[in-house]
DNA sequence: CGGAATCCGCTTTGATACTG
DNA sequence: CAGTATCAAAGCGGATTCCG
């Protein structure tokens, strides 16, 4: 496989990485993996998220088919969000990445400290 | 495990995802997995990257201990970049994510088209 | 309750020019 | 060759206000 073929193949992966690497997506996916939640329920549980970003993040997840949005036409309105099977399946590779992080976080942190020390001097 | 514990655990994963989800990191990691490369060699192979972003991306990778930078004090200067064992190990979970993308890209794309169709109407 | 609309600052990225 | 410096453009995220 030529270098250009390698990089060409990765260009399809990066967009997803960028999507789930944004500030809130993973948090919400993992939270919903425990079961459906209402809008304000998520807002309370995900510390620090603004109403705007929660709306946008959920909308994108719905658009990608990772989350379903169910409206109950009651008063006051109620909207449930739940992971689709596709969303559930995404948890597998994401948690593999999570394991890599927990296993190598200290190594990376030491590397950073050493690097920054060399620079500061 | 409580919802807050779930989201708290994910907060350590998101920073890495954000790092490798940026525009160029994955491309460079995968390219270097085939062997060391010189600066301008990478620049040629990674289509569209600017000199500035290549410098910044490589510096961050070096800082995180994923890539080594070797300077040959010749004239003209020569600098080789290579993946560390840590960088090599990162390929495993990243490629798992890559497989998920290739397996589910079509499903996601259909979901997006359907979603956008509902909106436009 | 669950949003939508607006404004605004910060960060990321790119283009360009210069250097040892 | 392998960078650094500077500037401008774009995108992301936050705070606030309004609505059915």
TrEMBL record, chains A, B:
HTH hxlR-type domain residues: 10-109
Keyword Nucleotide-binding found: no
Keyword tags: DNA-binding, Transcription, Transcription regulation
Keyword Transcription appears in the UniProt entry: yes
One Pfam family in the UniProt entry: HxlR
Superkingdom of the source species: Bacteria
PANTHER family membership: TRANSCRIPTIONAL REGULATOR, MARR FAMILY, TRANSCRIPTIONAL REGULATORY PROTEIN
Protein name listed in UniProt: Helix-turn-helix domain-containing protein
Classification of source organism: Bacteria, Pseudomonadati, Pseudomonadota, Alphaproteobacteria, Sphingomonadales
